[in-house]
Predict the structure.
Amino acid sequence: MIETTPQHLSVLLNAVLQYGFPDDGKVFADLTFGLGGHTKAILERFPTIRKVIAIDRDAEILEHSCKTCDDQRIFRFQANASDLKAILPLARENFVDGILVDLGVSSYQLDNPERGFSFTRPGPLDMRMNTDQSFTADELVNSYEKQNLVKIFRDFGEEKFSGRIADAIIREREKEPIKTTDRLAAIISAAIPAQSKANSAIHPATRVFQAIRIEVNRELEELEKFLDSAISCLNPGGHLCIISFHSLEDRLVKNFMQKHHKGCICPPNFPVCNCGIKPDLELLTRKAIFAEDQEIAANPRSRSARLRAARKI
Ligand SMILES: C[S@@+](CC[C@H](N)C(=O)[O-])C[C@H]1O[C@@H](n2cnc3c(N)ncnc32)[C@H](O)[C@@H]1O
């Protein structure tokens, strides 16, 4: 358990208030509830809301959020964002008027060494958002073959030295299984050339830790699954607002919104539309919205956040 009061600064709050919910909406779904910072601000800005469906994969943070964001209109569910469609009947609703997804981890999770997300705090190699899941970072680090490690570090972490780091991990785990975040961070750091470390503004283990977290929690598959059902959960006029922290996530969101904004999939040389697919999203943000310098100075985590929003037609 964390000893100090856990804190999480909600990112891009003004943009969430601008695009996250329609003025006359009644039901809001916050699918990455965390400590409820965004919901708290949404409830203040839109007092007509009668219900909030609050979803998080992490039972511990959901329980703790009762202390940080308490309101009788909030109904909490431990689930994946992609479970929203199945949860609607449990919440006695058919549709919602706004969906917010703020991907990644909360500072509450990062700051708790027991959860194993942080390279700066010694702890077990865990990184599961949902602790009921059996697959952990320990299993990944100590069992994945070299080519899988390289692929994950490169694709999910954009790590230039993926091969060297994978070699170092395999060498070290043959001596003794890698069980803790600090040992893994030291192995990664030793594998990166000194010159590169000296020129970098971030901790040498940042990218690899991010990559392992994305793989352990199957974050991209989960986002794709959520997007597949998102529009069907919205009332017409309902808003979909997604904050991502990684270019792969953002690409999925951008392509999804553009596809549904465009509708017709007929080849451009067809004189008339043959497919009959109509647009079902209006884009509220033409380009992704990023944090301004002031927010980045106050909350460095917001540096890589980008928000896209759309309205169901
Ligand atoms: C960045 S935090 C959310 C912070 C929140 N918006 C706030 O302002 O307090 C992300 C939260 O979403 C949860 N999470 C991430 N991906 C999820 C998913 N696919 N389904 C459900 N919860 C998810 C994490 O456990 C974490 O608590």
Remarks:
- The chain has a mean pLDDT of 95.
- Residues 8, 10, 31-32, 34-38, 55-58, 61, 80-81, 102-106, 129, 222 surround S-adenosylmethionine (CB under 6 Å).
- Strands lie at 27-30, 51-56, 74-78, 96-102, 234-244, 281-283, 289-290, 306-312.
- The first strand starts at residue 27 and ends at 30.
